[in-house]
Design brief:
By secondary structure, the chain is of the alpha/beta class. It folds into 2 domains: about 200 residues, Aspartate Aminotransferase, domain 2; about 150 residues, Alpha-Beta Complex (Aspartate Aminotransferase, domain 1). It is about 40% helix and about 15% strand. It contains 14 helices and 12 strands. The strands form 2 sheets. It has a 7-stranded mixed beta sheet, sandwiched between helices. It is globular. The relative contact order is 0.11. The chain binds pyridoxal-5'-phosphate.
Length: about 425
């Protein structure tokens, strides 16, 4: 053996930091955690521990993992990275985004308690509060989260949770997080932010006073349309403990394989979010003014009502979601989706492949019609999730679909005027 190569037993198992190190940036933390400290011989890529249970030698022995409904090494690896990404405690990973929302709600609310929920939220979130939690005696007020007075007015003595989504699904209405945090704090309510649309790559609610961030990791975090998952992130030990207890009690932890895939996605999140944002801005800008469109909704456009708030609150881009408001309603939407070639009609968002979703019939089908109308969700609304295809190909695709939508609208207007 070379004198320069110490025997395995002499080798340090991990590298000692040689001097004070600068704090690592988020893109680095996504791969290595807050403090890289790899053991020699450790696999670079975390292993998948596909085991329901773990060996114990003694009765009552304290082992790091005992049963995979409570914790699992692969899920814990994801949780460490997700937490490090936001300078928070290890996250909690769930079988879905809605499982995370359910655990968050039940960790703070019991019968008689009250929640304030952004009215413009993912349809499943509205359904959970209005149709599942309400019959259990948990009351909710759905407010316009862009209206601070409405949030203040909604506070009740038993308000325990304020949950907003920003940008909200699908109208991209923004909530001013730094302004809402003190309202929630004064009400002694937990302030949670569904940060699914931007992720901590572009928006950091915990830095401006939120207690918990919530994610459907199904979307940008895993980023490849391959898994369903959710996560909750907090810097508060007490909140985390309650969430972990409920997750174990309700049995909704993420599976090791899905957690492993999500961990691989997380490694490129910072890079992807910048690329998705740049492409979305280019596409939104190019589409503005097309005759088939009443409006292009994208926070990065100057025409966006809350553009100034978007510039102040987002860091590095405005995400990959562009919502199109078509003149011709449902018929125009049907014509639009029929001719798409690169973009796929499907019910999700946040992956490398571009998707188009018709809100009225897909994600928001379960939201009561009156509430849909109040939120401006109608038959002509299409949500685009801009993927990582070449943006020229996407532009050609979307322009072709808009031309088809315009023709259908023109034909039906002519027909109507002919009949009348
Ligand atoms: N939050 C937002 C903003 C969403 O868009 C979704 C799903 O579309 C969810 C939560 C729920 O996530 P999941 O579908 O992973 O349960």
């Amino acid at each position: 053996m070379s004198p320069f190569c110490p025997s395995a037993s002499d080798r340090p198992t991990h590298r000692e930091p040689s001097r004070m190190q600068p704090a690592l940036q988020a893109a680095t933390r996504a791969m290595h955690g807050s403090e890289p400290n790899r053991m020699a011989g450790e696999p670079l890529v975390a292993s998948i521990t596909q085991s329901a249970t773990f060996v114990q030698h003694e009765l009552g022995e304290c082992v790091s993992h005992s049963y995979s409904r409570a914790t699992n090494p692969t899920v814990a690896a994801l949780e460490d990275r997700l937490g490090a990404y936001e300078h928070a405690l290890p996250a909690l990973a769930f079988a879905s985004g809605l499982a995370a929302t359910q655990v968050l709600a039940l960790s703070q609310l019991s019968a008689g308690d009250h929640a304030i929920v952004g009215a413009a939220s993912y349809g499943g979130t509205v359904r959970l509060f209005a149709q599942v939690l309400a019959p259990l005696g948990i009351r909710s007020t759905f407010v316009d989260a862009a209206d601070l007075d409405a949030i203040r007015a909604a506070v009740q003595p038993k308000t325990r949770l304020v949950l907003v989504e920003t940008p909200a699904n699908p109208t991209l209405i923004l909530a001013d997080l730094a302004a809402i945090a003190p309202i929630a704090r004064a009400a002694h309510a937990i302030f949670a932010v569904d940060n699914t649309f931007l992720t901590a790559a572009l928006q950091r609610p915990l830095d401006v006073g939120a207690d918990v961030t919530l994610y459907s990791t199904t979307k940008w975090i895993e980023g490849h349309h391959a898994t369903i998952g959710g996560a909750l992130v907090t810097r508060d030990e007490v909140i985390r403990e309650k969430l972990a207890f409920l997750r174990k009690s309700l049995g909704c932890i993420q599976s090791p394989f899905d957690a492993w895939l999500t961990l691989q996605g997380l490694k490129t999140l910072s890079l992807r979010m910048r690329a998705h944002s740049a492409s979305a801005l280019r596409i939104a800008t190019a589409l503005e003014g097309h005759c088939a469109l009443r409006r292009v909704i994208y926070p990065g456009l100057e025409s966006f009502d809350q553009h100034a708030l978007a510039l102040a609150q987002h860091d590095g881009g405005h995400g990959g979601i562009v919502t199109l408001d078509l003149h011709g309603g449902r018929a125009a939407a049907e014509a639009f989706v029929r001719v798409l070639r690169v973009t796929t009609l499907a019910e999700s968002l946040g992956g490398v492949e571009s998707l188009a979703t018709h809100l009225e019939t897909m994600t928001h089908g379960d939201v009561p019609q009156a509430q849909r109308e109040r939120l401006g969700i109608h038959g002509g609304l299409i949500r685009l999730s801009i993927g990582l295809e070449d943006s020229n190909d996407l532009l050609n695709d979307i322009f072709g679909a808009l031309d088809a939508a315009a023709s259908s609208t023109f034909a039906s207007t002519k027909e109507t005027s002919h009949v009348s």
